[in-house]
Queue: 3 jobs
Job 1
Amino acid sequence: MDYDVAVIGGGPAGYVAAIKAAQLGGRVVMFEKDVVGGTCLNRGCIPTKTYVKAAEYLHHIRNAKTFGITVDVGSVSVDMPRLVAFKDTVVKKLTGGVASLLKSNGVEVTRGEAKLEDEHTVSSDDKRFSAKNVILCGGSLSGRIPVPGIDHPKVLTSDGMLEVREIPRRLAVIGGGVIGCEIATAFRAFGSEVTVVEALPRLVGTMDGEISDSVLKTFRKNGIKVLLDAKLASVSDRNGSPVLSVEGEGDIEADIVLLSVGRSPDLTCLGAMSGKITAERGRIIADDHMRTNINGVFAAGDIAAGRPMLAHAAFKMGEIAASNAMGRDEKANLKNVPGCLYTIPEASSVGLTEEDAKAKYDILVGKFPMAVNGRTLASGEHGGFIKVIVEKKYGEILGVHMVGESATELISEAAVIMEMEITAHEAAEIIHPHPTFSEAFMEACADALGRCVHLPAKK
Ligand code: NAI
């Protein structure tokens, strides 16, 4: 065998797997058809955060008068080509960093599309590479829907949206999930008229219902038009512009349409082993060790079934796959994977939603509104909450859901507490600095137990 481990795909699952296997003493080759870093660094998590940051600046500029700061808000605008250039610089810096990490760990990186020939052979550009173990990390692609006219050239996926150099006057978003809500937030702040068309009765349907309600309220307050329970019938063309026809709502004409209806695993890496490696609804079945049904073949990241399609989950899966490929016996614990939504304000979740917890357990719900959190008010904000779902008998924290300033940072504390199985009784006793956003978590734990000092007494 030429290598101990061959990794197909250099995204968050793949590059972490490659580095981990090398750290454990393996001779490793990693194949990447594009630029290392995958969707997360090149077309997803990182580039979109530069747009959300720009939107936050605009939000603060528009609220500056709250603090007595005088700004000519009317003259503030976004130079889109410069923002795109900044985004590209950030992406380049991070993908370059990943390339250096791979190099410093002695991982051989091969540029090209790789496919499995058999369980020990990978082919790329007519070359064959043999490895004792193969880790499949092919990632995912933007999903499509079979709606007539959906191939209109101005219907873009998030990949295309991140290359747009002119702010559209009218942006329509098909799919009010995480990507749809983040792009809608950014472009609304940039000045676009935004309409979100969502098939379900709520936005961000995988998150807690109160988060969905809160995002909807903020969107509508900010002038984003949201159509829920919407059935998109077709996309047509009017003088070069795409027009969405939504049942019962009529036509929505736009300059650009974002299609953000989920992602589909990219299984091209299976090559000749397609059909031999067990998959379920287009995603590869892997056990907690990230092993597929074929000995020596592992799968990690977005292509692995039953796990969240999130970069931080992919990091963990890649690490575990590599450890096991190098002879260890480790399981991927993905019990408490936080999910983040980078809207304004931000939202985040870990564990069970209130709806799911209620169906399984006898629960207590504690909630602290950020409208009475000192740091939030001093920051000129007022919306949001931290909600804690607690199992009644033992006080186990089953889920934490937040909307508000820094919610995507604050969720880590909740994840740690849940991972360490610290109860709500204990969490309510932990001294948090004041004034901070984070003290609202402690207050929410206390509220669940009916002993929050900073909320009015409950009758
Ligand atoms: P998503 O699954 O979050 O949302 C897709 C939405 O489209 C759903 O609400 C669905 O009901 C709706 N939809 C589907 N078909 C539709 C139709 N015909 N008409 C109208 N609405 C329709 O998928 P999204 O937003 O594309 O994100 C893809 C993946 O990327 C997610 O799995 C997510 O985990 C990951 N991601 C995570 C981010 C984060 O953590 N902040 C940011 C961006 C992406």
Job 2
Amino acid sequence: MRGGRSGRSGAPVSDRRAALLLAWFDAHRRPLPWRADLDPYRRWVAEVLLQQTRVEQARPYFDRFVAQFPSVAALARAPREAVLRVWQGAGYYARARHLHDAARQVAGDGAGVFPRGRDAWATLPGVGPYIAAALASQVDGEAVVAMDANVARVASRWFLETGDVRSARVRARLAARLATFLPRDRPGAFNEALMELGETICRPTAPSCPDCPVRRSCRAARELDDPGAIPRRPPSRPKPHVRAAVVVVERGGRWWMQRRPDRGFLGGLWEFPGGKIEPRESPEAAARRELAEETGLRVGPLRTAGIVRHAYSHFSVDLHVFVGTAPASARPGSPGRWVAPGELGSLPIARGTGKIVSRIRGAGRAFPDSGSDPGRTRRGPPLGGEARSGRSPRQGRRASTARSRVPR
Ligand code: ADE
């Protein structure tokens, strides 16, 4: 553990607003697992997870991650697949890949020593301005404001900022205002208190102002009928919908799977061959075409296993699932593996692929023609998503074209 200065120091905080906020945080902060100390490794893992995942959802991932990789050295030594596997389901897998790359940097060139200060933290892969400021303030006691979406919302209400809080200019203005009373002796606690306030009280809609420690100095609470009206939310645009065909090729009780390229959407995860269904193309024709293009495999009759629906963070997809049997002599002409169902427990796969596996396992070996069955698979959006990369090239024989790419 590092001797940060953001824990409870007992030093007086000169500004009344900061004092009220910190007193509230000291009394109400949730006992989250990464808050037990100021260990830079645990704080870093937590901040990376929390960047796109809510606290209660992030918690079990954090616990599993640090149990499996208890130190930066352990993380650096781990194979990529083990890291992605622990992250499986949390979405935005680039976070896990960057964390892993950064651990190798710290454990290698850095000889196990973490960066110190915001600018040094920002040199690590996956550490942007927000995480760098959060870590520098919490772990190193550097007096910098960490501006995430929660903090931007709290500050916009506090100072009645009506500009677009997503813009860098407005965020810089809000950060500058907060910096005027950021307590030098507890900057990390101040930042965490703002995040906590945004998550528990100053929520996006229906903020519970009577419970807020700084309501008396909050301009939105004093001047607006509905303090939750700012920041204004842009109208939500419907997510694009994609239709895709996926082929589960069985050979001797194993399935052909391929690994997505390490970079990009769902990078490094394993999946079945497949791709977008072209306009006026039948799902089965798309399945055969994709299979041939990606693997060179030709299979006999395809049986349908129905449609699996999945919603990622920025699009939804109908996966038309087909199952075919390849002869024992089949040799796909692309990188991949014949995977035994029992091995799936150790391979990182995306949620959509997990749903396909459940579907075909549930259907047993007969794979009845179940047709569309949205009721069984249609659930809410996944816990996380994957960062929109605009790319999802496949590793198959064919260099994927923009039209056939399936951002699955
Ligand atoms: N969101 C991002 N970082 C956080 C933290 N340290 N505590 C609570 N919520 C957070």
Job 3
Amino acid sequence: MKENIYIESYGCQMNFADSEVIAAILTQAGYALCDTVEEADFVLINTCAIRDNAEQRVRHRVRELRAAQNRRHTLRIGILGCMAERLQHRLMEEEENVSFVCGPDAYRRLPNLLALVRQGQRGAEVELSTVETYDDIDPVRLSGNGISAYISIMRGCQNFCAYCVVPYTRGRERSRNPETIIREARTLLENGYREVTLLGQNVNSYRWQGPNGTTAVDFPDLMARVAELHPQLRVRFATSHPKDLSDKLLQVMAAHDNICRCIHLPVQSGSDRMLQLMNRKYSVSWYLDRVDAIRRYLPDCSITTDVIAGFSTETDDDHRATLDLFRRVRYDYAYMFKYSLREGTFASRHLPDDIPDDIKTARLNEIIALQGELALENNRSEIGRTYEVLVEGTSHRSKERLFGRNSQNKVLVFDKGDAVPGTYRQVRVTDCTAATLLGELLPQ
Ligand code: SAH
Ligand code: SF4
Ligand code: F3S
């Protein structure tokens, strides 16, 4: 009988995309996927190391799984992803019920690793690669609604922002062969999918140079090719590093209606001094120039961001500069974090983590409160507008309502009427909260 694998994922979209590659590798090797820990022979936890609280969550989960292991001694736990790469053998020493660790570039070796573990051994595969992109692997769609899917277009990162662990857990930046990306998107389209999100830590530095004489493919070229597969296939992407956001990309977006009007442009701080310490390689005025360019080429584009409160030596003035920037840009959505020192980063070696936790929290809360107000004002100004919505499914709150997203990636909730998930419908906004637009379905 086949042995069962249960995969649990934490962290960014790239990790969720990786879990689908892992599922493909293991099903090809003869394992079956299951939906609960109770049915599983192996629990695989695909982890994130970006902040300490992400790691603590995983450790808590690993300890919680001891109970299931006490009930069933054959149950084995493996840690995959960024925490496995960061901590390597240490993780197995610290968490005794973990049988193996496997880093993000070593997933092809999972079948060997699992075979070893079945013989009662423990193992670690944590070597990083400069070339691995899993480009020949057709991911098994896990969390899917059958409508929207992720496609990894590159791996790794070498921007070395001073606070960030990703270059150490994911290795060197490398781009995936565009032909395999197009093939994956086409297969999704043929299987009824209507939205793909192209993923990389810094998609704007995507670049593929084929064999001698062939022209290079950059990110705007790739976007155009995916968008031209079919007008009914929406294309999204994440994440854009502001330093590399080109006018060429904005022009390609403007020329294709099915490239969604939403750009995630993490700013991290509104203070030039902080940006320099963070090694972000742009200034506030450069960032605002990119925001202006977005508004010029794509007047209806939403802009979202990431921000860190309480980075090394951040003063009240630096913090106020971040609040000012938020007021100026008026983000549609923001992911807001407290600075968390990560071992091995430039900041951990050279910059003091000197902002007391209560001040970090107070600053974060101030940013969250401001963003809440701005988002609500933004949403209020949407009332009366009509959007094309890709219907995704039943609303979590009511079976009588459906939800979907507009091109700007805002969620709209509306009475279901005759709408069907997986189709496009016109919805008029009638009301809102800070997070959601409420609307009415227009006749077809
Ligand atoms: N590649 C993306 C970001 C990936 S990590 C980019 O450069 O935009 C997602 C977000 O986590 C980052 O944008 C940053 O805001 C946050 N982050 C990263 N390291 C962090 C740390 N040490 N402490 C707090 N937040 C962090
Ligand atoms: Fe981390 Fe910076 Fe790379 Fe983003 S660009 S993953 S923040 S090092
Ligand atoms: Fe976390 Fe790794 Fe993504 S550290 S944010 S899962 S690249």
